[in-house]
User: What shape does this take?
Amino acid sequence: MVNDLATEASTVHTRFPYCIVAFVVILPRPALQAAQERALIRTLERLGSRGDELDQNHLAEAISLCVWDPDSGTIDPNSPPKDSILRIETMPDRIYPAYLDRYKNLPPHEAEEMREAGQDNES
Assistant: This one.
């Protein structure tokens, strides 16, 4: 699975270097042993660490990991750890700055910024 994610990120970034690649990995709790889970978290944190368009192509800008219990249908709130970049609730915090850095002032965003500036001038 990890090789598939790296290959997919590399394929996209090779053709579209400014593209933001984000993955959500959802695994059932019974499929994970504790040691396997720790190793997977470390690996996904490294794989989801692309900082800018000049960084390595096989890295993703963001990855989230959700571990769920198929019997109850609930997501494990303790995995990944609270300080991990893999937490689903922090995914937008990783994507949004990359998006602004790469696309602000480019079409179609410059039209929106011009409209906002015009509204500010009217006030």
